[in-house]
């Protein structure tokens, strides 16, 4: 019996950084391989087939009937505090497509989906999600997802760090991992990541830094609901409201206006980034900002 | 031959009293070199050497798949059972057999008028795994010979089933002994061979866990909160969870001095700690577990359903697969998948739990079905309401061909202290940064 693939928790930053896809196993006959799931292995050792995410849909685009595309195809961008997931929903995901076609942007959603990757042939790899389930969510659900994803990612990073500091390789490494009381998918993912990416401590620490930022941004947001952390946040939200002419506000214009009100440019930049990652503000297009309602 | 296979070869040799050690190893090696799957290879070797071997095996050497061997032991318990095999009623005899090396449960397909306490030699028996444990089988094609009582010396079977903590009692155990407190208990009348018999069912607990029990004997002076020591309870397996059966051969005594025990009634009835799904998936069954995670899918079959009034099976278009066209009883349920990032678990909620989690009564749900003329209306609404929600469930888990399922006894939306958790994770990141 094939066990159901579990839904991994993964931040967009780590997800998008991945380029290594593997099948179930090397010695499976071709016939079975058709039915065996594909996995994406991330640099930090997650071996993912299905994932569960919560975030803000910032953009939905109907890209059906385009050259080379499926007849019906919707593209959505879903942001978390570390980056943005790309989601494609086509003919075989009718429910998700209907959901996206009527979705007001921006809004909070949860998605359960399968990993897809596309290699244009120039060595680059684009990873995306095919939705199985998509549903409306709220800020509470998103915040809890960030915390749980942070916890599970840190658990994995702890194991990876232990592996790196053990200095073990090949069979020694397998023996080292088999002595640890951890699930087999973790052991496998870490071995594959080490083998393919040669992940080092610097990368893991970088990820940790991102997780730290993610936790801090949502921590701030939830500490003083529904108000905002600082006066800068408040001013920017006020300006975005006032200056919005329908298309949003162009970033340089916003900075200029804020500076004219004695606000240092760096503070504006920090606040905008934080508001973006907390999902209070989004970019309808590049360098335009708009309030999330 | 690598180490792992060598250990299998050794296991096989042991089963034949180390008589054909080298031959067995060579044979197994040969089969494996032809890429015969290990399990199949072992079976083949067993069959081959079984014909050669006239030597009898002992209980501890029994391996699933063995057949045609001889075994001698004392029957330490036997009972008649009525079962249905291929739509046919059949009486089988089920019990346990012990020798100096161990004890195993057996099934005898035919009436051989065996009695408890008899020493028997069985030729042409076989072993299969049943309910996660080794089961010895014999029947018409076997020859069973009752030997004089002194053929085997009287055995102290209690040494084979010494006292254990509840978490250590596994489906592989045949008998169990332990010191526990009774935390649930109720009487039930069941029809047995045309007569109504009252049995006692309930739950026992110690500091390591809880297990269900059934008493076929009266429990005098024992009630909820009683501390008891039981010896030689028969272990049955129900849905992957071991269940203690107290019968005529079980010795039960009240424990007077309870303050030496590592648990009290209060500590024993406490709710268990929530388990990660990965831990639940490792086991064939867990009695009373709490799992917290996200609802990642509400499965088809959820919502308003209809059941057969006779057998309670879910019906399709008023048709029960056992009773044909029936007057159905409406029911509501939720089948969902809970995932906490360590694994996926199927969870079943009955109508009461569905009402509280879904937030609509069955009456309202029935009205929705009538108003929309579609049974799926409730299912679709449940999906919108529940998918992506964080939920806690408590109940018993068991493994089946569809994976591991937890049947909930309670379900709720748990508290989540976001600030506290963020704080502790940040401390964790920073604490490690200092190292």
Write structural notes for this entry.
- The complex is a heterodimer of chains A (293) and B (435).
- In chain A, helix 4 runs antiparallel to helix 7.
- Chain A is built from ten helices and twelve strands.
- Chain A is 44% helix and 24% strand.
- Chain A starts with 6 loop residues before the first strand and ends with a strand.
- In chain A, strands 1, 5, 6, 7, 8 and 9 form a six-stranded mixed sheet that branches.
- Chain A folds into two domains: 223 residues, OB fold (Dihydrolipoamide Acetyltransferase, E2P) (Beta Barrel); 61 residues, Winged helix-like DNA-binding domain superfamily/Winged helix DNA-binding domain (Arc Repressor Mutant, subunit A, Orthogonal Bundle).
- Chain A is α+β, with helices and mostly antiparallel strands and 293 residues long.
- Helices cover 23% and strands 42% of the residues of chain B.
- In chain B, the strands form four sheets. Chain B has a five-stranded mixed barrel. In chain B, strands 7-8-9-11-10 form a five-stranded mixed β-barrel.
- Chain B is an alpha+beta fold.
- In chain B, helix 1 crosses helix 2, helix 1 runs parallel beside helix 3 and helix 2 packs antiparallel against helix 3.
- In chain B, strand 15 and strand 16 form a beta hairpin.
- Chain B folds into three domains: 149 residues, Nucleic acid-binding proteins (OB fold (Dihydrolipoamide Acetyltransferase, E2P)), CATH 2.40.50.140; 108 residues, OB fold (Dihydrolipoamide Acetyltransferase, E2P), CATH 2.40.50.140; 136 residues, Nucleic acid-binding proteins (OB fold (Dihydrolipoamide Acetyltransferase, E2P)).
- Chains A and B meet through strand 1, strand 8, strand 9, helix 4 and helix 7 of A and helix 5, strand 13 and helix 9 of B.
């Amino acid at each position: 019996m094939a066990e159901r693939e579990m839904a991994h928790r993964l931040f967009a930053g780590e997800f998008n950084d991945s380029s290594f896809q593997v099948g179930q196993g090397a010695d499976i006959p071709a016939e079975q391989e058709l039915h065996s799931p594909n996995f994406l292995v991330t640099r930090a050792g997650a071996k993912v087939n299905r994932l569960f995410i919560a975030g803000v849909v910032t953009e939905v685009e109907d890209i059906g009937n385009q050259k080379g595309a499926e007849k019906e195809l919707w593209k959505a961008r879903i942001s978390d505090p570390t980056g943005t997931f790309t989601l494609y929903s086509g003919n075989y995901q009718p429910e998700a497509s209907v959901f996206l076609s009527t979705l007001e942007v921006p809004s909070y959603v949860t998605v359960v989906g399968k990993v897809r990757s596309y290699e244009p042939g120039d060595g680059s790899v684009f990873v995306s999600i095919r939705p199985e389930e998509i549903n409306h969510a709220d800020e509470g659900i998103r915040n809890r997802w960030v915390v749980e994803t942070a916890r599970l990612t840190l658990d994995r990073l702890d194991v990876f760090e232990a592996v790196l500091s053990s200095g073990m390789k090949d069979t020694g490494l397998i023996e080292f991992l088999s002595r640890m009381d951890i699930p087999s998918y973790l052991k496998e993912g870490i071995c594959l990541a080490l083998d393919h990416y040669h992940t080092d401590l610097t990368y893991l620490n970088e990820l940790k830094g991102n997780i730290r930022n993610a936790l801090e941004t949502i921590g701030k947001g939830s500490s003083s609901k529904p108000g905002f952390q600082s006066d800068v946040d408040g001013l920017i939200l006020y300006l975005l409201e006032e200056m919005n002419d329908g298309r949003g506000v162009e970033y340089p214009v916003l900075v200029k206006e804020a500076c004219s009100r004695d606000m240092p440019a760096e503070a504006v930049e920090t606040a905008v980034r934080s508001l973006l990652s907390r999902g209070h503000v989004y970019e309808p297009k590049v360098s335009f900002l708009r309030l999330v309602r | 031959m690598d180490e792992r296979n060598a250990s299998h070869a050794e296991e096989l040799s042991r089963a034949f009293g180390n008589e054909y050690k080298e031959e067995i190893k060579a044979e197994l090696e040969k089969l494996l070199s032809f890429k015969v799957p290990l399990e199949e290879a072992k079976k083949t070797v067993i069959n081959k050497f079984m014909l050669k071997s006239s030597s009898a095996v002992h209980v501890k050497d029994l391996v699933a798949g063995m057949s045609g061997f001889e075994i001698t032991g004392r029957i330490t318990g036997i009972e008649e059972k009525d079962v249905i095999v291929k739509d046919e009623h059949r009486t089988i005899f089920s019990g346990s057999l012990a020798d100096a090396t161990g004890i195993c449960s057996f099934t005898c397909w035919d009436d051989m008028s065996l009695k408890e306490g008899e020493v028997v030699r069985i030729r042409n028996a076989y072993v299969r795994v049943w309910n996660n444990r080794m089961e010895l089988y014999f029947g018409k094609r076997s020859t069973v010979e009752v030997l004089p009582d002194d053929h085997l010396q009287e055995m102290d079977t209690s040494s084979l089933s010494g006292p254990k903590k509840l978490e250590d009692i596994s489906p592989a155990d045949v008998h169990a002994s332990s010191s526990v407190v009774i935390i649930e208990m109720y009487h039930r009348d069941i029809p047995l061979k045309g007569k109504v018999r009252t049995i006692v069912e309930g739950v026992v607990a110690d500091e390591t866990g809880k297990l269900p029990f059934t008493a076929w004997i009266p429990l005098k002076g024992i009630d909820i909160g009683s501390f008891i020591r039981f010896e030689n309870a028969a272990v049955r397996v129900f849905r992957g969870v071991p269940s203690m059966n107290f019968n005529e051969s079980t010795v039960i005594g009240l424990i007077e001095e309870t303050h030496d025990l590592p648990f009290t009634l209060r500590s024993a009835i406490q709710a268990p700690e929530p388990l990660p799904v990965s831990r639940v998936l490792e086991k064939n069954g867990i009695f009373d577990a709490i799992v917290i995670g996200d609802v990642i899918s509400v499965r088809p079959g959820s919502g308003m359903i209809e059941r057969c009034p006779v057998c309670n099976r879910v019906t399709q278009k008023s048709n029960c697969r056992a009773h044909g066209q029936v007057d159905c009883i409406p029911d509501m349920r939720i089948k969902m998948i809970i995932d906490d990032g360590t694994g996926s678990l199927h969870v079943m909620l009955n109508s009461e739990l569905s009402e509280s989690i879904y937030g609509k009564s069955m009456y309202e749900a029935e009205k929705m079905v009538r108003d929309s003329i579609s049974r799926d209306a409730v299912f679709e609404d449940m999906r919108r309401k529940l998918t992506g929600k964080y939920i806690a469930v408590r109940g018993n888990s068991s493994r089946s061909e569809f994976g591991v399922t937890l049947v909930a006894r309670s379900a709720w939306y748990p508290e989540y202290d976001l600030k506290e958790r963020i704080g502790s994770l940040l401390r964790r990141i920073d604490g490690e940064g200092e190292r």
